[in-house]
Design goal:
The chain is α+β, with helices and mostly antiparallel strands. The chain contains five helices and 14 strands. Strand 5 and strand 6 form a beta hairpin. The longest helix is centred in the middle third of the chain and has 25 residues. The chain is elongated. It starts with a strand and ends in a 16-residue tail after the last helix. This is DUF2262 domain-containing protein.
Length: 281
């Protein structure tokens, strides 16, 4: 097996194998230093753990100048790392494409793991709310689609999220109460237009609050939060949106998404779309 030199772009670091003290890593592509040929491949490099070559010496999305032996079957034996963080135009172009497509995960020990959705430019996670069985979608609306800028901004969003989750029972109650105070009369108006036997009964605030169920929480800039509730048929399936600010501890608005009472005055709402029993959850 003849030694050769390659400039390699690393994809992922493999497992440390205990029985023979070997580690491995997958390549995205490499350049043969002798021919200057670019090869895009999922070839693997292996090396024996030692003081010279540790498990931490090879990292994902880094470019290295390596001395290797070709073991066949798309596998190289790593002999030495000749240079780290090598500049290579061909591999840097591939690296940029990989970084754009790669998933970005940000983890906060007390809050959980968030994955960046590059299409919406937000970090998403599912977190427990008032009980172990109640899980909500949480979005950090970073407005960034790359790892570096996301990491620069995410701290402020975590601070806001932590404020809410430290007092989540209180926030849940405040958001629902505000919505009930501003929207219960509208729910009563809609009920009047239904075929329900209870069409002339008022939608009381306590009933309105009991029906609401938090679905998602979006964290915006400057302490702003947007809570989206399942209306549970209070408004024929339209979501209830409540906005607040954690910095001044104030709730600013509560609306029914895409809802216009005038549209429902034109036709009778079927009984199946209106909750008819006050004690039913």
């Amino acid at each position: 097996m003849q030694e050769q030199e390659i400039i390699a772009l690393i994809n992922s670091k493999g497992a440390f194998i205990l029985d023979d003290s070997k580690a491995n890593a997958e390549l995205i592509a490499y350049v043969d230093c002798k021919t200057n040929e670019l090869l895009e491949t999922s070839a693997k490099i292996e090396w024996k753990i030692s003081k010279k070559l540790s498990l931490k010496d090879i990292k994902r999305f880094k470019i290295y100048h390596l001395k290797v032996k070709n073991l066949g079957e798309n596998t190289f034996l790593l002999i030495d790392i000749l240079k780290k963080d090598v500049k290579n135009n061909l591999l840097e172009k591939i690296l940029k494409e990989c970084e754009q497509n790669a998933s970005v995960t940000v983890e906060e020990p007390d809050l959980g793991k968030f994955v960046l959705d590059k299409a919406t430019k937000s970090l998403h996670s599912k977190l427990k709310w008032l009980s172990e069985k109640e899980e909500i979608d949480v979005y950090l609306n970073i407005d960034e689609d790359n790892r570096i800028n996301t990491l620069k901004k995410v701290g402020a969003f975590f601070i806001t999220l932590e404020k809410v989750f430290k007092e989540k029972k209180d926030w849940d109650k405040k958001l629902k109460t505000f919505a009930a105070e501003h929207l219960a009369d509208l729910a009563t108006e809609l009920r009047k237009n239904s075929k329900s036997l209870f069409k002339f009964l008022k939608v009381w605030k306590w009933y309105f609050i009991a029906k609401m169920k938090l679905m998602s929480l979006a964290i915006e800039n400057d302490g702003e939060i947007v809570a989206t509730f399942d209306d549970r048929k209070l408004f024929s399936g339209h979501k209830i949106i409540v906005k607040a600010n954690t910095n001044n501890n104030e709730i600013s608005s509560a609306i029914v998404e895409n809802f216009n009472i005038d549209d429902y005055k034109k036709i009778e709402v079927p009984e199946s779309n209106i909750e008819t029993k006050e004690d039913k959850e």
